[in-house]
Amino acid sequence: MKFLIDECLSSELAAMARASGHRESTHVTWLGMRSRKDWTVVRRAVRDGFILVTNNTVDFTPLFGREPIHAGLICLNVAPGLMQLAIQKALFRLALDQLAGDEPVNEALEITLTSDGEVTVERYNLP
Predict the structure, then answer these.
(1) How are beta strands 119-125 and 107-113 bridged, if at all?
(2) Residue 71 contacts residue 46 (beta carbons within 8 Å)
(3) 10 Å Cβ neighbour count for 23?
(4) What does the alpha-carbon distance between residue 68 and residue 13 come to, in Å, rounded to a whole number?
(5) What count of other Cβ atoms lies within 10 Å of the Cβ of residue 32?
(6) How far apart are CA 19 and CA 29, in angstroms?
(7) Distance (Å, rounded) from C-alpha 40 to C-alpha 60?
(8) Less Cβ around it within 10 Å: N or C end of the chain?
């Protein structure tokens, strides 16, 4: 598996993925794609077989839903004001654990942290 981390998340997540054995993982800014339109990021992820990791569930879920085949989408949903680096890392680690080597082809994995500290995990087919 290889992950493409969206610019709304820290590049440290790409470093975490690489340290976990996913050596082709990268960050949108490392590819020179900073401030690109969401559909451009999706096209790159789909074309190059990346699992996209984002916190922009609202925009990316419908875009991936239009793709006949994709490597997967991971959405780290966090209550407003809680998206700190430590939280990003903890939720991404949970995502890696949830996948456990099982590639999420044509799936989405949503990990949500609510304002009261509850974490939920949902994995579903997309499209």
Answers:
(1) antiparallel
(2) yes
(3) 10
(4) 27
(5) 7
(6) 19
(7) 11
(8) C
* Residues 6+ away with beta carbon under 8 Å from 81: none
d(C-alpha 65, C-alpha 69), whole Å? 9
**CA dihedral (62, 78, 105, 52) positive or negative:** positive
Instruction: Write down the pLDDT at residue 83.
Output: 86
Residues in the chain: 127
Q: Residue 120 is encoded by which pair of tokens?
A: 């939920």
SS (H, E, C) the chain: CCEEECCCCCCHHHHHHHHCCCCCCEEHHHHCCCCCCHHHHHHHHHHHCCEEEECCHHHHHHHHHCCCCCCCEEEEEECCCCCCHHHHHHHHHHHHHHHCCCCCCCEEEEEEECCCCCEEEEEEECC
Q: What is the pLDDT of residues 107-120, one digit of tens each?
A: 999 999 999 999 99
What lies within 8 Å, CB to CB, of 46 at 6+ separation is 67, 69, 70, 71
